[in-house]
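Progress note, sequence design subtask.
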């Protein structure tokens, strides 16, 4: 067997594999003999079918299988042994393969097109410093969070007469269209000039209003009527709300009941301690957001600092061929820039993993999956009595044959470990900024998790 690499550019090459009869025939003969020993054909005793009979019946298919098997190993071994940085998969020359005459040829030549990434180094001393932000959660931010929490855990009562800001419940109907539904109308969503109709209302009163001129936007109309947002334009004319109940929300009092609802029973007992706890949670939350932003910026900086050339035309052809019509060439062209960035980042991460001997072991994959399952179980996931169930669910998830969950989790753990290496190797520039400034920076990338949601959890 002869394998030759012919480079046509720094990022493309042809890999030629030449096979002679001496390369494949011994394996073909062995397979034919194995078939003969197992064959059960009419007119022959079991295991006594002559090899030439088997050859006449199955010889070509066996030859094709053995040659393809040898080709696969030859290409893979050559790429591995010569440490060629291949991107995509080797693409066989289809025209040449289709022209082969398996009945008469004894020597074969196969050609594969290869796409390659140019060589590169990850030299951390050449990587610019990446900003790492410490967010200053000032008193205004703390007060805003507490105010939002008081709204979220608001006390609700049922007044006899409505005021602005109340919620009106009842039956909404329009006799002309025979429309009727149970609904809730938040007076906050009513246009300012129309709110008087919903103020001073009592149970069993009827409020008549124009559906298109009463609410502040289409989303509010959709909420009130139960229609899809795109369908609310079809509604018109006067509708009638028959009031059945009125609810009014008052911000929760800063008392022990409120503290327990937000932070858990007995966590704090004074308003001062509550404010300190909320401040800590806000700072921890923003610290996580800052860390996520740092890792995103590290990846961006690596891409900007490390030059890697890729075979764009080859990769587009490879994507089109391997996706087998799922994507048009136009779609591939539109999304190729993002694919190219992702591929370059993957190459960089793999090089870092190789340099720092990053490996992912099964116990790490299992532990990560357990934590994921615990999160799905919510508060019950921290109960030690659930350990056996969590392990069973995690194992089932990883061994699901219909989904490639194991590979997905492996990749997530791998990325985390590589990012930990990068976090320690890339120089950071520490900056302290206000919340408003950080939000502007973070908005360009990942949206930060809502502070109040984190406090509630």
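Output:
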């Amino acid at each position: 067997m002869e394998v030759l690499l012919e480079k046509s550019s720094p990022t493309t090459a042809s890999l030629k594999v030449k096979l002679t009869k001496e390369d494949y025939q011994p394996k073909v003969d062995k397979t034919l003999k194995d078939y003969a020993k197992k064959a059960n054909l009419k007119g022959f005793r079991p295991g006594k079918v002559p090899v030439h009979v088997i050859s006449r019946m199955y010889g070509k298919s066996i030859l094709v299988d053995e040659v393809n098997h040898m080709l696969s190993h030859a290409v893979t071994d050559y790429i591995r042994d010569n440490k060629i940085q291949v991107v995509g998969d080797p693409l066989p020359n289809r025209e040449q393969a289709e022209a082969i005459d398996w009945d008469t040829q004894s020597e074969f030549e196969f050609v594969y097109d290869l796409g390659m990434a140019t060589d590169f180094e990850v030299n951390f001393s050449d990587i610019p410093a990446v900003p790492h932000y410490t967010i200053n959660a000032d008193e205004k931010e703390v007060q805003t969070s507490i105010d939002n929490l008081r709204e979220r855990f608001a006390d609700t009562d049922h007044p006899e007469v409505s005021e602005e800001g109340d919620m009106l419940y009842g039956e909404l109907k329009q006799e002309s269209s025979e429309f009727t539904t149970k609904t809730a109308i938040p007076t906050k969503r009513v246009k300012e000039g129309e709110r008087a109709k919903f103020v001073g209302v009592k149970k069993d009163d009827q409020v008549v209003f124009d559906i298109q001129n009463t609410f502040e936007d289409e989303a509010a109309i959709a909420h009130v009527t139960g229609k899809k947002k795109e369908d609310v334009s079809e509604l018109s004319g006067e509708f009638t709300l028959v009031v059945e109940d009125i609810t009014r929300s008052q911000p929760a009092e800063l008392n022990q009941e409120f503290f327990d609802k937000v932070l858990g029973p007995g966590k704090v007992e004074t308003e001062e301690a509550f404010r300190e706890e909320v401040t800590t949670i806000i700072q921890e939350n923003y610290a996580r957001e800052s860390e996520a932003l740092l890792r995103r910026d590290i990846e961006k900086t690596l891409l900007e600092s490390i030059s890697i050339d890729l075979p764009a035309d080859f990769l587009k052809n490879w994507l089109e061929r391997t996706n087998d019509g799922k994507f048009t060439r136009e779609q591939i062209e539109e999304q190729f820039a993002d694919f190219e960035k992702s591929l370059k980042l993957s190459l960089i991460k793999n090089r870092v993993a190789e340099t720092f001997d990053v490996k992912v072991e099964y116990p790490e994959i299992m532990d990560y999956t357990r934590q994921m399952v615990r999160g799905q179980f919510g508060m019950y996931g921290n109960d030690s009595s659930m350990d056996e169930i969590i392990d069973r669910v995690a194992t089932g998830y990883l061994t699901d044959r219909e989904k490639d969950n194991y590979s997905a989790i492996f990749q997530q753990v791998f990325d985390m470990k590589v990012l930990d290496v990068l976090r320690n190797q890339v120089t950071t520039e520490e900056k302290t900024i206000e919340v408003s400034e950080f939000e502007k920076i973070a908005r360009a990338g990942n949206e930060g998790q809502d502070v109040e949601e984190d406090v509630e959890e």
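DSSP finds 15 helices and eleven strands in the chain. Work on this subtask will continue into the next period as scheduled.
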